[in-house]
Amino acid sequence: LLFLPLLLRGQDYETQGDNLYAAGNYEEAELQYKAAKAWMDSRKIDENSPEYLSLEKKIVRTGRLKALKAEADALYSTAVSQQSRASYSQAAEACSRILEVNPDDRSAQSRREQCMRWISRQERIAEQQRLQREAEARNKALVSLLKEGTVTDMLAAIDRHIAAIPDGNAEERSFAEALKHYIADGFGTVSEDSIAIYNRMGDLFMEAGKPQAARDLYDCSASLADPEGLYKKAMTVKSKSRQDIFYLLLASKAGYQ
């Protein structure tokens, strides 16, 4: 009974170490485990006893985790500073190494999730940028053919353009189909009564150096009281008439600058 308080004191050190370990505070946990080991040494506890060997394993494991956590903290700070995919990947991998040893480390779990969300977000942005670049390249190819190609060439190019549009891009496919219909109809009618399609097709023909075709398309959107169409229609004419100036003023009044 006289030694019971001392025994409980040694167990207290180890219990506190276990709690700190569970919380991911490996530096403090290691100190508590070493204090428990010192207590055992002072009491001449057999070094081959299960309790002593278990405590030594905890000290080794906690020391390793302390080093891994310091590495993960440094890599995460670098990632936040550099905002690069490589640095966030390294930080996530460092957290994974911690979780291999202690799967219950909530701090490492949370930080790895933050890293993976950042990486996922950047991948989505990169994919959107890639698709945008591809769409711009296809658009430039159409403009080139509208400048020099025959109607047959234009229609063949649009068919190739439609075939290259990724699945799920309904808006671009709809525009390409409307453009094909417009050209096949001898630049007469558009298959869809859409302000957005009228203006985009007008922009395409303006870029191809065909202002009259662009003007006709802008006139379609202007007829639907679209201020952008009114403004762009007026801008297709080099010498502004009173009517053109009226269109510009009307568009400005409607809020289109």
Q: What topology does this entry show?
A:
Blueprint: H1 4-22, H2 26-42, H3 50-82, H4 85-101, H5 106-148, H6 151-164, H7 170-184, H8 195-207, H9 211-223, H10 227-235, H11 242-253
Helix pairs in contact: 1-2, 2-3, 3-4, 4-5, 5-6, 6-7, 8-9, 9-10, 10-11
Notes on the structure:
The chain is an all-alpha fold and 257 residues long. 80% of the residues lie in helices and 0% in strands. The protein is built from eleven helices and no strands. Helix 8 packs antiparallel against helix 9 (211-223) and helix 10 runs antiparallel to helix 11 (242-253). The relative contact order is 0.05.
Distance between the termini: 91 Å
C-alpha geometry: rod-shaped
Low-pLDDT segments, ≥5 res:
1-8
Q: Into which percentage range does the β-strand content fall?
A: under 5%
Calculate Rg over CA atoms.
35 Å
State the secondary-structure class: mainly alpha
H/E series, N to C? HHHHHHHHHHH
Roughly what percent helix?
over 70%
Helix tally equals 11
Number of strands: 0
Major sheet characteristics: none
Give a short summary of the structure.
The protein has 257 residues and is an all-alpha fold. The protein has helices at residues 4-22, 26-42, 50-82, 85-101, 106-148, 151-164, 170-184, 195-207, 211-223, 227-235, 242-253.
